[in-house]
Amino acid sequence: MADELLTIKLYYDFKSPFTYLAMGPAYDLPRTHRVRLRFLPHVFNFSAYGGELENRSERDWRKVRYLYRDVRRFANERGITIRGPERLFDSRLALISGIWADRHGLFRPYADRVFERFFKRDLNIEDGAALAAIMKEVGLDADGFSRYAAREGQDDLAAALAEGERDGVFGVPTFIVEGEPFWGNDRVLWVVKKLDAMELRRATPVL
């Protein structure tokens, strides 16, 4: 039916600069195509970049420096500030907060603030109080989140991570369109081509 929407999964991690770059184009997909986005947390694994900072070889560091050069290129094209984090962060609490925001229909305003402030080095995503302050800005129940994060949120995060394993996710951002993975912020263009081939483009974009 014309009014049916295809669900696209988007696996994300708040500490991934490439995920931050993918969010704007991803938000446009439901506007231009008959799709809905389903946001799923996935813990970004630093092992692909040599693991902990003290364990990285010079070759690993060259790779990291190059990737951040690409990040800055993409970011500069769109006027986005992305500063490399000064240490490796555990994003699990922040990812649980993303689930909480999504449950209450406020994922985008919440996630936008978390990404922007984290990559300006204005937010510690391991700090529950800092996350709670952003929740209050967007109208989320921060006290309710504290209770959720301690119990049910842990289970919901585990379920999302398990779903990512079943989907074969190995990095973020990853889009899953009818079982087909697209990894990377610049792969949104290929997602659009697939949706066009499926004849899902809207006759008139939603404002």
What report would you give on this structure?
The chain has 207 residues and is α+β, with helices and mostly antiparallel strands. Helix content is 52%, strand content 11%. The chain has a single domain, classed as 3-Layer(aba) Sandwich (Glutaredoxin). It has a 4-stranded mixed β-sheet with strand order 2-1-3-4, with helices on both faces. Strand 1, helix 1 and strand 2 form a beta-alpha-beta unit. Helix 4 crosses helix 5 (128-138).
What's the CATH first level? Alpha Beta
Structural class based on helices, strands and sheet pairing? alpha+beta
Largest sheet: 4 strands, mixed
What proportion strand?
A: 5-15%
Overall pLDDT level:
93
Overall 3D form: globular
Quickly count the helices.
Answer: 8
How large, in whole angstroms, is the Cα Rg?
Answer: 17 Å
Summary keywords:
alpha+beta, Glutaredoxin, four-stranded mixed beta sheet, single chain, 207 residues, 8 helices
Secondary-structure map:
Blueprint: E1 6-12, H1 17-32, E2 35-41, H2 58-78, H3 92-103, H4 107-119, H5 128-138, H6 142-150, H7 152-166, E3 174-177, E4 180-183, H8 188-197
Parallel strand pairs: 1-2
Antiparallel strand pairs: 1-3, 3-4
Helix pairs in contact: 3-4, 3-7, 4-5, 5-6
Describe, in short, the structure shown.
By secondary structure, this protein is of the alpha+beta class.
